[in-house]
Specification:
2 domains; alpha+beta; Diaminopimelate Epimerase, Chain A, domain 1; 18 strands; 18-stranded mixed beta sheet
Amino acid sequence: MNARSIPAVYMRGGTSKGVFLHASDLPPAGAERDRVLLGIMGSPDPLQIDGMGGTVSSTSKAVIVESGPGDAITYWFAQVGIDTAQVDWSGNCGNLTTAVGPFAIDEGLVAVTESLTRVRLINGNTGVEILADVETPDGRAATAGDLAIAGVPGTGSPVVTRYLDPAGGVLGSLLPLGAPTNTIETSNGGVTVSVVDAAHPNVFACSDAVGEMAERSVAELNSDAVFLADAEHLRASVTVAVGRATDADDATRNSPAVPRLMLVGPSTDADADIEIIAFSMGRVHRGLPMTGALCLAAAASIPGTVVADAAGGARSGLRIRHPLGITEVQAEVDPDGAIRSLGVVRTARRLMDGRVYPREY
C-alpha cells in the first residue's frame, strides 16, 4: 500500500496516551484496520521507532470513535502490541476513556452545554455505558484546573466518569468462577485468587503469590524473568479456567489482556487501603490501569474477596497505593450486592492534532 495520511489526535487520558481516530477515516473492523494501527504505532518493534508508540503498554494504544445511537458516542479501544504484530480489542482502557468525552466535544460530535457537558459513551469492546462529565466553560473541553492525579505532573480540569452496570461485560458475570475466591492450580501449587469482571476482567491474588516483591522497584521486577514468568503462568491459568483459552500458551498468545493480573496487599500507611502491583501485556505496569482500579473498587465491595480482605473488610470507597501514588475510586452498590456504577475522577488533554502517516504495510 502507498503511504497515506489519516486525520488523528494524540491525547493523554489519565496516565495513558493514545492516538484517537474517527471510524470513518479507517477501514472496517478487521485485519486491514489492525494493520493500519500497527503501522501508526510502528509495531512490531520494541522501540516503535517508526511510529507513534511509546514502547510501553500505557502509550501503545488507539481509540476509534464514532457517533452512536441517539446522543451517545461509541468508541473502541485497541491495545497495540509493541514487539508483536497484535492488536487486542478484548477490553477497555479506563485512562483513555477519560479522554473520549473531551475528544468528542472538541471534534463537534456532541452538543455543548454551558459550563459542564455530560457525554454518554458506549464502549464497543464491552458494551458498557459510561457517563462522562466534562467542564466546557468556553464551548470546548477545559484542560486547566486544580485536580492533581498521581503520575501526571501539574494539575488539570477534572473529568468524572461513571461506568453504569459494569459487571460481566467481557466474561458474562461479576464473578466468572462463581465465588469470591477460588483456588487455581499452577506449577507452583494452588493459589487463592478472586476473578472479577467489572469495567475489565481482572484476577487478584495476594502480594506474595508469585514471589518476593517487597522493596523492589518496577524496573527490578521487570528485569526478573522468573517473577514475570510465574506471574504470566498464574494469569494464563486463570484465562484457561474462565474459558478464554485452551492452554497457557494459547492464553499468552491470544488473550494477553483478558484477564489482567494484580497482586494485592494491605497498605503499610494510613493514606491508602491497599497496595497493588499490576501487570499489563506480560510486564509490571508502571502505575495502575484505570479499568483495573475500577475493578478493584468492585472487588472491594464484595465480602470475602482477596481485595476486601486486604482492605480490612468490604467497602464502597477504595484508596489504592500503586507505584505512581494513590488513586481513589468509588463503587455504588445496590442492597442486593449488584454493582450499580463505578466512578473515578481523572484529567485529560489534547496533545496534538493533525495527520498521521502509517508505516506502509
